[in-house]
Amino acid sequence: MSKEFRHVIYDADGATLRVIDQRYLPTRVRWFTVYDADTAYRAIRKMIVRGAPLIGVTGAFGFAFEVRIRDMMGEDVNADEIADHITSARPTAVNLPNAISRVLSAYMKGGWREALREAIRIMEYEEESSYKIGIYGSELLEDGDVVLTHCNAGALATVKYGTALAPVRVAMEKGKLIHVIATETRPVLQGARLTTFELVKDGIDTTLISDTMVGYAMYKGLVDKVIVGADRVLADGHVFNKIGTYQVAILAKKHGIPFYVALPISTLDLKGTVEDVIIEERDPNEVLYVRGRRIAARGVHVLNPAFDVTPPEYVTALITDRGIIRPPFRMALSDLVRGNV
Ligand code: MRU
After folding, report:
1. pLDDT tens digit string along 260-276?
2. Cβ distance 245 to 151 under 8 Å?
3. Co-location of 307 and 171 in the same domain
4. Do residues 63 and 69 lie in contact, with contact meaning Cβ atoms separated by under 8 Å?
């Protein structure tokens, strides 16, 4: 997003993290203040903030603020309990437990000051890694490309730039003209509300489609490339991301369109298996209502998984902050993490 626009502000004096409450976008800009574990939990659980990297950052600050308050008041600190509480806010994106385990071990080593320093490092890392994803990913884009993206994996899902949208931003900076097709992303409408908000704000030409139009758009030859973000990527390349990603991937393969997944290293889970990952099941009202208006008959059953899993055979490449990774992913990812790439 434009250089001045910030939606996450750490206030060192007040010991707070101010975030834009994304539930009100794009029509209203309202702020929410995270100042302890409970406010961090609420911000993440209620999707005031969302997107894998941003919930990691928010959780890390919530932990650091909480242990600071308790230390300063001379209270006993059960750091594991605080960590578990924040981590339980949302189960699928691995950035949250990854960030919480970093601040927890920093606290064990050096108390609340070290935990706070670690939270700041996590925030700085997420900003830098997004830009690097942009640099690497922009090489995959050609002047005139139309990029389809799903959900919001932009600046609003991270600290700045985004993951899926970072390559688009950097390609534009390099003088390439990129057009984005954003899916609306039912039920929470991150694409319609957030992706269009940030792209239009940046002057990036964007077309909004409903999720049901992806096949048609691809069939008509309107899409050159797909780039999505991720909430968790396993060692073998399985990608957990916003519900609907799987069907976009299948359609991309059917139409010979490259399907890229953009992620920072903090989104990798090299130990987990597909069976281990909990897919968050959210409130049925998200499906039953659209922006406060009921759209379905009373008495109907609802299924509302927030994420799905895309098998590696549908993924053309992973765009990471350490470079582009192509299949087979297992060896390439372990080399990447060990720093051999
Ligand atoms: O439920 P959300 O809005 O938190 O889901 C977000 C996504 O699925 C994003 O694609 C993912 O977190 C990548 S964000 C850079």
Report:
1. 999 999 999 999 999 99
2. yes
3. yes
4. no
> Which residue bears the tokens 């992913």?
329
Q: Answer yes or no: do 215 and 330 share one domain.
A: yes
177 and 294 co-located in one domain: yes
Question: Would residue 3 count as lying in a domain?
Answer: no
Mutate to test the pocket of ligand 1, among 96, 149, 190 (most ligand atoms within 8 A of CB): 190
Q: What CATH number does residue 55 fall under?
A: 1.20.120.420
Q: Which of 1, 25, 150, 151 to mutate to test the pocket of ligand 1 (most atoms within 8 A of CB)?
A: 151
Number of separate domains in the chain: 2
pLDDT digits (tens, 9 = 90+) for 108-129: 999 999 999 999 999 999 999 9
Segment 85-103 mean pLDDT: 98
The 10s digit of each residue's pLDDT in 311-321 is: 999 999 999 99
Is residue 74 classed exposed, middle or buried when 0-12, 13-18 and 19+ CB atoms within 10 A define those classes? exposed
Shared domain for 256 and 295, answered yes or no, is yes
Does residue 285 lie in a domain region?
A: yes
What pLDDT score does 340 carry? 61
Nearest atom in ligand 1 to 95's CA: 12
Domain containing 28 equals 8-132
Q: Is 231 among the catalytic positions?
A: yes
* Triad 165, 8, 196: Cα angle to 5°: 35
Mean pLDDT of the chain: 96
Give the position, in ligand 1's atom list, of the atom nearest the Cα of 190.
3
Question: Residue 277 carries which DSSP code?
Answer: P
